[in-house]
Design goal:
The protein has 248 residues and is α+β, with helices and mostly antiparallel strands. The chain has helices at residues 28-40, 43-49, 96-121, 128-139, 210-219, 233-239, and strands at residues 5-7, 14-16, 54-58, 61-70, 75-86, 92-94, 143-144, 154-155, 161-168, 175-176, 190-196, 202-209, 231-232, 241-244.
Length: 248
């Protein structure tokens, strides 16, 4: 049956519908899970949402969600109510290792599409960041963060916040985009630069700490001028250490 993956917005855990298999003609969420949820919610929620609702999870609790698109102003109105039901009674918790396996499978498909798209149009499809974050998470034993984490993309095995920058060697982009932000809060502990080849396969990963990046960014600024907000790829490599592959 088709599986449904949901990320807990509070804990970042991933949950999956439990009865999925390889038969893609069936959908266990709509056929089974949603019906089970409807049996257990209050009459008020049942009458409000009917059978046309989505599900979100936060702090391991299920929320019922409806969305309406307003064609007049091009906006989407979202209504969200707690169902007073626990995710564990309807979904299975997906371990981080298994999550990465699923992400890897999907990225492999995306790579093929991106390569074909570039051949046809000459344009990049824009998956470099996603591939870079995935490769860094797998190779360096890190946990992927959700898209809304400001300033960092991974959490490493020591709990440190990691910002990831990805670049495809051969692309015209030769700079590592904005790293240091004007914020009193420390948004990351170090930065990884992930280099990929033109088929989005991993070439190398470099690690630079905040002090070295700050020193390099401010090194050539004019007197009284603002520091650079990005680095050349070659500059980043020069001030960093290679963390993958580990045999060099």
């Amino acid at each position: 049956m088709l599986k449904l993956l949901l990320r807990d917005t509070a804990t970042q855990d991933v949950w999956i519908t439990p009865n999925h298999n390889e038969d893609k003609r069936l959908d266990d969420f709509h056929r089974e899970i949603k019906q089970d949820i409807l049996k257990d919610v209050s009459k008020k929620l049942k009458s409000q949402y009917g059978e046309n609702f989505d599900v979100e999870i936060s702090n391991e609790e299920i929320y019922m969600v409806s969305q309406e698109f307003d064609r007049n102003n091009g906006t989407r109105k979202k209504t969200r109510r707690k169902a007073d039901l626990l995710a564990k009674n309807y979904f299975e918790r997906f371990s981080n290792d298994l999550s990465l396996v699923e992400i890897g499978k999907n990225l492999q498909k995306a790579k093929h599409l991106a390569i074909e798209y570039k051949i046809l149009t000459g344009k990049s499809l824009g998956i470099t960041s996603e591939v870079a974050e995935y490769e860094a998470a797998v190779k360096l034993n890190c946990t992927l963060c959700s898209a809304r984490n400001p300033g960092h993309d991974l959490i490493d095995a020591e709990g440190k916040k990691v910002q990831v920058k990805g670049r495809v060697i051969g692309d015209n982009i030769q700079r590592v985009a904005t790293i240091l932000e004007n914020s009193p809060e420390k948004l990351w502990d170090y930065v990884l630069l992930v280099l990929l080849d033109e088929k989005y396969e991993l070439l190398a990963i470099y690690k630079a700490n905040e002090e070295d990046i700050e020193r390099e960014i401010t090194r050539e600024r004019p007197r009284g001028g603002k520091p650079r907000r990005n680095l050349l790829v070659t500059d980043f490599v020069r001030i960093s250490v290679s963390v993958w592959p580990t045999d060099i």
